[in-house]
Design brief:
Blueprint lengths: L2 E13 L7 H9 L4 E3 L5 E14 L3 E5 L6 H9 L6 E7 L2 E4 L12 H11 L4 H5 L2 H8 L14 H12 L6 E5 L7 H16 L3 E5 L3 H7 L2 E6 L2 E7 H12 L2
Parallel strand pairs: 4-8, 4-9, 6-7, 7-8
Antiparallel strand pairs: 1-3, 1-5, 2-3, 9-10
Helix pairs in contact: 3-6, 5-6
């Protein structure tokens, strides 16, 4: 069974610059709500995540909610394996697809077709697998002969079409998203929404960081309320969103 398990996971980031009495550090400490402290070596340390224990099971669609700086993006990157926990244990059972930056891994000097393969390799797929998806991605993006041209000749809209088409060409077991991914102009938008819906539905676990209550209520069945790197509440999405709204308007 696909699952994610975290046990007492913490992530710390040391702050190396500035003197201990600097105004900058004082402001940082105040602005972070007390999450910036000193370690044994008298360095300032940002406690981005603090003793997170969490079980996410197959079928869960979990929204990460909370104010800016709550630790949502850090938690996503821990789940993706980008960040190693400072302490604690994490066990991820299933293939993970982080969809943080759909343009990551693209080369502006390579052609569209070449970049489809490059992006696929970045996502953990073999070049032979991507070769079998070229025709489908080309049809979806509607880029035609531009796929034989280098990316530096693309407009921003064309680049987003290509990146979106490649990023959503497979259905991962565990999908990690930082905000909702939509791409393209008005003509392309509905097509992109339909493809994204299919992409998300095909995953066994979704973990989505979003500030949109409407998106969270539509796509998620659970929510994790983070504040200052700690879990404030985890449970049914409506209950957690209501509890978060109370803290915002308090």
């Amino acid at each position: 069974m696909t699952a994610i398990r975290l046990r007492d996971v913490s992530v710390d980031f040391p702050v190396y610059q500035g003197g201990s009495r600097s105004l900058k550090k004082t402001l940082m400490r105040a602005g972070a709500g007390g999450r910036i402290l000193s370690d044994a070596s008298k360095r300032l340390v940002v406690h981005a995540l603090d003793r997170i224990t969490l079980d996410i099971e197959e079928g869960d669609r979990v929204a990460l909610i909370g104010p800016n700086g709550a630790g949502k993006t850090t938690l996503l990157r821990v789940l993706a394996g980008t960040y190693e926990p400072t302490v604690g244990l994490i066990d991820v059972d299933g293939h993970v697809a982080p969809l943080f930056d759909s343009a990551l891994g693209l080369n502006p000097d390579a052609t569209g077709y070449e970049n489809i393969t490059l992006r696929g390799v970045y996502m953990g797929m073999a070049p032979s697998e991507m070769a079998g998806r070229l025709e489908e991605i080309a049809a979806f993006t509607e880029l035609g002969d531009y796929l034989r041209m280098p990316l530096r000749s693309y407009s921003s809209g064309m680049l987003m079409r290509l990146a979106f088409g490649v990023a959503t060409c497979v259905h991962p077991e565990i999908l990690l998203m930082d905000e909702w991914l939509l791409a393209g102009d008005a003509h392309f938008l509905e097509k992109a929404r339909h493809r994204l819906a299919s992409f998300v539905t095909g995953s066994k676990i979704l973990v989505l960081a979003s500030h949109s209550d409407a998106i969270v209520r539509e796509w998620c069945n659970k929510a994790l309320f983070l504040e200052r790197g700690q879990v404030r509440m985890f449970g049914p999405v409506d209950e957690v969103l209501d509890a978060y709204a109370e803290t915002v308007h308090a």
